[in-house]
């Protein structure tokens, strides 16, 4: 607030009239009058400033470090106008939002050395009325004449204070104090103070924005660089610094020095960065980087930054991600993580408990794993549990069913394929790098592909179909097999080289009929999961129903039990599942048109586990009749 010049003698008279007679002259500025009354109520000494240091040296140093940005910026700003300060005997103060003096610049303040005033609080409670307390109270710039100061020894000169706000929030007060009764260009002093205030506010706002942007860049999974024409790295985010250290372009000792990329990247002139300085941008391009430390691949985007007037490239922004990191990111984004733990596998019977404990031990070693067991016994869930309990749990879990496609497509799915010189896709083996590849129905893997996989696992390197480029892989195989893989290998039907690799740790999952004691608990667990998944009321399985389930052989194992209970859960009225509600063929009933519909008959055949006698009982027909339909549908009887 710019105030017109006031007579010092009149102001001194107003001050004396109030302090000695308790009378406030109506010509006293209302803010000053209010502050005088407050100072008097507080009993602030009027003769000298009696300030006791409230912060230890260590506490004050910590406070200054917290506000180092503002302190250093104002220091640089005041250097250029030091002569002006000296000419008018001015002192500059930076005060925090708690009215504690953070820094005293230029000449002494209140005849004190900077060391005496710094670290002390100069609010109205300590020194009474001052321009600082008025600016603090009313959050606006304020010019105060010397005789308006509460402490007499401070009345020799005038003072002006202005609050500093960042994004609308009050942070500091900057103050200019005149030490002598000399004529000062009031407008110039106020303009100077407001200019310094605006500059500091803009600097702090910009610093806050830059910190936020740097935090965002450091949080991204990409390495970000700002590269100058000569190959110098002007900026790198946190991951970028790590990558630079990895290729030897930067020391890991905290030094900011970065070697010229042209000196570190051996194929620099063939990279998108070099082309970027010729005005050629690149977007999501697969690039090979050759350095003395290592050769690696990443996906790189390069954006040239041009001058408006002549379109010359001043610098480029580079965003890159190593392909192995991208694979992991994609795997997690696509949900390629373990959905089950070993503890989610229900069963406390001695047979299954020993298997689950062995799986837990196997998970901790680094060997590849072979899970064997009949179809439907829960091998896939076991694979998920082993992955989750392993040291690779943070990596992806990728699944490939070996019997789902042709050998040609299976090889491409497993190893990846080069479609053309510009486009090359990674396979499941690369996608699982750092994690686990679950090969279901591994017995259906053709021998030539199995031999290629065995070599890749032994060497830790693999090539995509159609390429000669070797890529490093780091993957653990968990294989599942419905039959005896060792016997298939001995008969020459499976590659011995791959069998010896995946069979170093073998987990055999028992058939459900071998662990009948677990069936009631499994049934309760399945029904509870169904209720939770579909947000329905849970249903009770009666003891008599459990007996029916225990007495059945379950040729389809847990998968068949799941199907039967799903049918009962959704088709049973009420809250209990009774014996009559159980259809061991699931949604296939004796009154279905199985005689005309092959699909219905096959479902019943599968439910009976391919056993003619069991199917005859389920459908309530003779074995002779069933033989006729088995021949009709081309099914093999057991």
Automatic annotation (TrEMBL):
SMART domains in the record: AAA
The keyword Nucleotide-binding appears for this protein: yes
Name of the protein: Sigma-54-dependent Fis family transcriptional regulator
Listed GO MF terms: ATP binding; sequence-specific DNA binding
Sigma-54 factor interaction domain: residues covered: 345-570
Organism for this UniProt entry: Selenomonas caprae
InterPro entries on file: AAA+_ATPase, AAA_lid_NorR, GAF-like_dom_sf, Homeodomain-like_sf, HTH_Fis, P-loop_NTPase, Sigma_54_int, Sigma_54_int_dom_ATP-bd_2
A Pfam family per the record: AAA_lid_14
